[in-house]
Amino acid sequence: MHELRWNQGNAKLPKRIIHFSLPSGHSCPAALKCLAKADYRTGKITDGPEQEYRCYAAMQEARHTHVRKQRWNNLTTLKRLGQHKIHTLLKASLTPLYDKYMRDHQQTPIMRAHVGGDFFKDVYFHAWMDLARSFQDASFYAYTKRLDLWILYENDIAPNFELNASRGGKFDDLIDKYNLKSAEVVYSEQEAKDKNLEIDHDDSHAYLPGPSFAQLIHGCQAAGSDASKALAKIQGAKRALADTS
Asked: What is the pTM assigned to this prediction?
């Protein structure tokens, strides 16, 4: 059986965040507006039929072979296992990173389920809740479109696990019905203001309790799409600001 792989930080996330991923799209049964899949062998992107903007994590997999292989290894290892075995493997692979961070920084790390991927089956969802209960002094969080699992198993959610409903999926109707904390992709700062949402730039809105929030469109978007045009405006504004500073 292959060893599970975690990562720490990235261009957006601080090193304190230790994260685990699966192949985007391939493990996201509730995705719609962001659905994109990188081919396992070639990395070629296939867009979903209702896609409005491309998943950033899928584009990571398209560009970087090692990222794609790592996430597929994680999924292949876990997809046929039951709750107890998944929890055991997640805990065994996380513990060395967790302990090292504690030794080096004298504070607990923050664990994120999925930069890429989602809770692809019930027992996997429960295994993550078991994992959070195994590290009671630490914080866990996730963005998810599996709102059906969130509501169905609400009583099983660990107290140290912060869930964020990722808008743009098959179960969006549950967000307002159950008043779930949500994250919404916006195409401009003005759109966020119009919706009375703060923009999260470092995931702190996601891992801390609080109100719903927005995320600016980012990553590589399909040429000619509204998302691509919005991204070009955002990048142009950043360049203009840098030129005047």
From this structure: 0.92
